[in-house]
Amino acid sequence: MRMRHIFAEAGAGLRRNLTMTLAVIVTMWVSLSLFGAGLLAQQEVGLAKGKWYDKIEITVFLCSKAVAGDNCTPGQDATEAQKVVIRQTLQSNPEVSANGVYFEDKHEAFEEFQKAYKGNPLEGSLTEDQMQESFRVKLKDPQEYAGVVSSVAQLPGVQAVQDLKQILDPLFSWINLLQWGTIIASALLLLAAALQIGNTIRLTAFARRREIGIMRLVGASNFYITLPFLLESVISALIGAGLAAGTLGAGVYFVIIRKAQVSIQSLAWIGWHQTILAMAAVGIVGILLAVIPTLVTTRKYLRV
Amino acid sequence: MIRFENVSKVYDGQRRAALADVNVEIDKGEFVFLVGTSGSGKSTFLRLILRELRATQGNVYVAGRDLAKLHSWKVPSMRRQIGTVFQDFRLLPNKTVHENVAFALQVIGKSKTTINRVVPEVLDLVGLDGKGDRRPDELSGGEQQRVAIARAFVNRPMILIADEPTGNLDPATSVGIMKLLDRINRADTTVLMATHDQTIVDQMRKRVIELDDGLVVRDQSRGVYGYAT
User: Coiled-coil annotation: which residues (chain A) (predicted)?
Assistant: First the structure.
């Protein structure tokens, strides 16, 4: 009996404010989707960073006939004596992991080149002799690359030192910025959604002020008076959160599982595990965003 | 049943006390008129009993409970022991007479069987049997006030508070309402009625408490509206 009355009141409230309810649902949907996408992007960056940073190595390119640098004799390959000095410098550096120095000769470099440019017009443009020899150096801690780079950069026979992190860091900082943008945008939208819910509840309370006055007069409990309002906002929030969860699920399925994971296999991709966690977060935030403004508004308008 | 001990009420931002050092005791089963000009403190007196307001000083006891010490979550259960009737009836226009009375029971969680048994009884008591399906705008003012009284009384409260219940009614209709309140009083319900209606007070010859500018200036059993000469 009691429950039927409460549900009837909540349903009447939702219908009475249909346009407001729809506005709340759509705002909730968009803002929670953005919020969830922000969470997923953060997870993805974390995964990608971990995998890429593990692979990071320093490449010390040596002088060749084709490419010259400050420490090169023009038109000459690096000499065997120079290579020995470079190798010893690298191996004696405490930041370089044991057996972490690998020499790639012209033949290997040519095979790599052919593999990378297979079917490309560039494939036949270079000969094996034009390839550059290099040392590939693995580090104990990929963050500590600066000391190793500077120890060999000025040695004779070194054409250039390349560190992958130098390439990746700007990329990651851009992704970071994008993530924060998403999170701030979703926070603003979520704030708008919360205010909208507060407003809707205020309208409903105003429309029902006679009933509420009588309920207070005859001694209906605060819980009983508040519950229809809570249900009303929680139902709209749950619909919005459900739509947002669906959007996230569809996004992950079509963009990541069907497309990205298949075509870019070198990267670690987020899967259903992270998606379900993000959906749960979206649901919890959605419910909090409905309950808190409702309680604040009803406290103000339904005070005994 | 109702006891005011040195009760003062000063509204926020005002200097003058709406009630000043009021001491009143109303026993179970009494019928009491609360008279005085507008602004004399009658409404404040009633709202303190309902705990819509809290006393600035002193203690208000209702049915043995000190309202100052009553937790706000216990206020609803305290109010279930008080029925309230107003000058403007305060009925729900989109509900029938039966539904209006039933609403008061629904929202305090009474079962459907109880409601269907009790509501016709109380409608019969107030003289509205057979009119349960009407809507308030199909009834006369006197009948609407009877619905309001039925709603206030359906839960058999110990106290009935009536704030100018005849204020919108003509004298003949008012007499009917007073007879009804008298009948409810005889069923051992304490009735406290604030009124401006001199004829009614003079006819009924009940206890009269007169307020003037927040002070109790008269408390007389079997009194009349003005000073008895």
Answer: none
